[in-house]
Amino acid sequence: MKLKDIYNQDKTPVISYEVFPPKDDTDGEKLENLFEELNKLLVFKPSLISVTYGAGGSNRNESVEIIKRIKEELKITPMPHFTCVSTSTKNIREYLKTLESFDIENILALRGDMPQDGNVCHDFKHADELVQYIKDNTNLSVAIAGYPEGHKECESFEKDMLYLKQKADKGADVIYTQMFFNTEHYFSFVEKCLKLGINQTVIPGVLPVSSYNQILKMADMCKVEIPSKMREILEKHQDDKDYTKKYGIEYASIQCQKLLQNGAKGLHFYTLNKAHAVSEILQNIL
Asked: Out of 18, 62, 105, 149, which one is annotated catalytic?
């Protein structure tokens, strides 16, 4: 089912998950663990599962295997991520053909991070170019990324919104947001989208906090605000892992309820390849 159809259903909220190919999985054990976790989450009837893709296609083979298994074993619509920076037109064309050969219908088009090995190719410099290429050469439904607090590399929030408009106008169907902890940023973002004529469905990305140090690192890397009260509580209990996980579930549950009560059509969970926190949140809100 294509993205437009998924988000135009009467079914609400639309639940989706993001996973990533496990690193250093020489014997395949981590991959099997990932599917054990995903099987625990099937009870909440997700509409799709997205799969990340490394810069320059660094884990393309692993992503493809996961995509196939999601579709064939779990019977859930997969949505591969696809980054274009430092990837040649030839490789992009071949990858898109591979996806279509599996009857994949949706893709999340991203610029991606520059590869650390310095292997640079300038065929595509920005995500809007990738969106245009996909729309011109395939029948895939395209999702794009949105940043409620602005992209970490962009010189201003206003300019980042104009870049989002460029991506949206090339034919995107849905916008998935980066994680955020101040829910007001999401509502402000949606309002600004509408003012710019960006009318695509905006799906909030939700990350349950499970570790104080991890969330500090991720928030700094993505330039995401941690509200002062949240930071204070997490700092106070930073050595109590059980408390931190419980608090993260409670915080995200309240966040999700507020998002749904104020019009969000769905929730996109950054699972970090684990089921427990997302399961608890969904039990709390559904």
From this structure: 18
